[in-house]
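User: Let's play a game. I give you a shape written as tokens, and you guess the letters that built it. Ready? Here's round one.
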């Protein structure tokens, strides 16, 4: 093969590797320090609000006939000393969770929940993701599958489980006589973590109100929780997925009239890395088919 073609193949292989690693977005020639930008924006906001507060206090004192208050000593950089830390001005994780709960509770159907997520800016993953990955399948399905987080192909298409792990999930469903037409599929997180890293506890907590409301609105007869993040978060368990898998639990949120039988199992992405564990997942899927076919409650 000519050297030019060899170089081209090597370049294409390197590009494919970078895409799989998460470097799938074009950037500028120079690195951008977004932390510095955030700090500058926070400082500007602090200064503006401090000035507005000082002006309001001055007006109040003048109206009451009191002498003006001496200006507080300023810290280096021109900021007033008592604003140095300003933790209250930074958006906290608890604020984002509270907003998520309010928006999720206000959704009356699946379409409104999707709109609420599209307008929600409390999860930082939205800033690095390409698309919102909401759901796929039939919202009236009897069973609902909840995975962990989107991957690169899901991020590009906006559909959960369409990459290699999604194809394996489709094959596993087909093996027990099910498919996407009879299922409703979503994830714990609705935006892809950069580089497919493990979701953080804060990211999961921020998206959890939407996931819980999602389940309430679909109201399936059975849940399949795919992967450790979804199983532990929705079931409130601390064990690892290898201890949870194959076991039936009851899932219920405050707005649900009844508990739902939920089966924990291994994520297809994990099975692609550990093919020997497919035998365990096969047992889980057979258990799920038996429950789905009989219509019983295996968690009872």
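Assistant: Ready! My guess for every position:
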């Amino acid at each position: 093969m000519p050297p030019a073609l060899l170089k081209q193949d090597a370049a294409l292989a390197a590009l494919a590797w970078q895409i799989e690693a998460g470097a799938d977005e074009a950037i500028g020639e120079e690195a951008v320090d977004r932390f510095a930008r955030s700090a500058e924006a926070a400082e500007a906001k602090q200064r503006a609000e401090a000035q507005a507060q000082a002006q309001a206090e001055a007006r109040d004192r003048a109206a009451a006939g009191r002498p003006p208050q001496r200006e507080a000593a300023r810290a280096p950089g021109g900021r007033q000393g008592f604003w140095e830390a300003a933790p209250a001005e930074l958006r906290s994780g608890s604020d984002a969770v509270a907003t998520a709960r309010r928006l999720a509770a206000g959704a009356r159907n699946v379409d409104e929940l999707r709109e609420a997520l599209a307008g929600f800016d409390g999860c930082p993953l939205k800033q690095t993701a390409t698309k919102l990955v909401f759901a796929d399948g039939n919202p009236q399905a009897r069973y609902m599958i909840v995975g962990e987080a989107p991957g690169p192909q899901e991020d590009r298409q906006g559909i959960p489980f369409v990459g290699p792990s999604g194809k394996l999930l489709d094959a596993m469903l087909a093996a027990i006589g099910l498919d996407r037409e009879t299922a409703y599929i979503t994830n714990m997180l609705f935006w892809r973590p950069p580089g497919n890293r493990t979701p953080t506890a804060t990211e999961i907590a921020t998206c959890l109100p939407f996931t819980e409301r999602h389940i309430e609105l679909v109201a399936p007869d059975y849940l399949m929780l795919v992967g450790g993040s979804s199983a532990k978060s929705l079931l409130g368990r601390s064990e690892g997925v290898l201890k949870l898998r194959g076991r039936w639990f009851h899932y219920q949120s405050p707005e649900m009239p009844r508990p739902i039988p939920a089966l924990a199992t291994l994520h297809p992405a994990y099975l692609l890395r550990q093919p020997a564990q497919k035998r365990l997942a096969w047992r889980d899927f057979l258990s799920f088919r038996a429950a789905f076919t009989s219509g019983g409650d295996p968690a009872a």
